[in-house]
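Bug report

Summary: structure tokens for Isocitrate dehydrogenase [NADP] differ between web form and batch submission.
Environment: batch mode, default settings.
Steps: 1) Submit the sequence below via batch. 2) Compare with the web form result.

Sequence submitted:
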Amino acid sequence: MNESKISLINGKLHVPNNPVIPFIEGDGIGPDIWKATKLVIDTAVNKAYGDYRRIKWQEVYAGEKAFEKTGEWLPEATINSIKKYLVAIKGPLTTPIGGGMRSLNVALRQQLDLYACVRPVKWYAGVPTPVKHPERVDMVIFRENTEDIYAGIEWLDGTPEVKKVMDFLTNEMGVTAIRFPETTSIGIKPVSKEGTERLVRAAILYALENKKDSVTLVHKGNIMKFTEGKFKEWGYQLAKDEFSAHDYEGGPWQVIDKDGHQLIIKDVIADAFLQQIILRPEQYDIIATLNLNGDYISDALAAIVGGIGIAPGANINYKTGVSIFEATHGTAPKYKDLDKVNPSSEILSGVMMLEYLGWQEAADFIVKGLKGAIKNKTVTYDFERLMTDATLLKCSEFGKAIVKNM
Ligand SMILES: NC(=O)C1=CN([C@@H]2O[C@H](COP(=O)(O)OP(=O)(O)OC[C@H]3O[C@@H](n4cnc5c(N)ncnc54)[C@H](OP(=O)(O)O)[C@@H]3O)[C@@H](O)[C@H]2O)C=CC1
Ligand SMILES: O=C(O)CCC(=O)C(=O)O
Ligand SMILES: [Mg+2]
């Protein structure tokens, strides 16, 4: 057995003391935030475990760097390496808008079947925010990561393909509601029972493990009845079938009783949810939602606690153990190579990765360092511009400030 390979045995992650962890540096601001992140993670692991534990980083390629080196945007070797070593971390990758290739980020999630995009959102004291009570926000988003309109099934207006689909819809399916059939592009939104169930199951298990008060199914089921509506129905049904949930105050809300703790399963329509997270965020803990809703909600919630400079995430398949940790934000191209942006999103994704490995002591050192740097008002531009008397740090300097405060 290769001692430095993380493995999943009987559903449990086995982590050697020197695990190989593949990383993708990323495009745009990727190299800057990765440098700061690597420094912070390596220092925290060393501080927590000395020479006993150390990550063996293995660079794998995707995006612009991959194209330069191999002529491919997402080489097979990268996918194979992540499958082999199970746990990986990545920087953001560029996706052209409109035409051009499909998202490499989405491709990685789909090819590795990383069905849960897990994005915790909470406020760190001292971070400037646009709301009065950011401390009331403490949520974890479970975003379905492999289906919905992100599956990329779409046809461009004016092509023979879209004409074929249009003919099928009008002639064989009796569709009459397409307003301008000659100039319409078409996209398809697949949402399955299996896809919904594995996502909602992961959200409920997380909520029970962490003794949270509620899981909220966020959907637009009033309009998209058979996709978003079924997501809600399948979610409630799973709570009943697998967790013995029963009606709460007459239903449709459910309640799960476990070890003297009550977990409420509820639902809310997505637009109403987006105003309630600003007005009454304390009513929400764990959010389970479909892919597009989850994308919007991630950035909206991040803004409430200080912006996407401090919004971590993970893409996980709980069955295979394969996971990629990554910031919620993108490549912010205007800041490329300026050593300017906030590396906190990537660093906190590293914290999630360490927690996933069970290396809690190292994760705790990073959070302590981050809190210290923010408390001292030594911060990057995104926070500094909203604070008074703060010291403006570069991306790399902020990494060092975290290390200093560990
Ligand atoms: N998972 C991934 O790899 C993702 C990739 N993308 C891709 O990234 C590219 C750019 O997307 P775009 O829509 O501009 O979104 P970005 O998230 O890249 O940037 C939007 C704005 O967010 C702020 N921001 C982003 N990252 C940071 C940071 N680390 N610290 C501080 N502020 C930050 C900046 O705001 P300000 O201008 O106010 O300073 C920036 O201009 C696209 O190709 C997109 O497809 C997008 C999201 C996720
Ligand atoms: O892949 C992309 O370019 C965007 C993805 C995204 O916005 C997200 O996952 O939050
Ligand atoms: Mg997004």
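Above is the batch result. After comparison, the two runs are identical; trailing whitespace caused the diff. The longest strand covers residues 261-269. The pocket of 2-oxoglutaric acid (ligand 2) is lined by residues 95, 103, 105-106, 295, 298, 328, 330 (CB under 6 Å).
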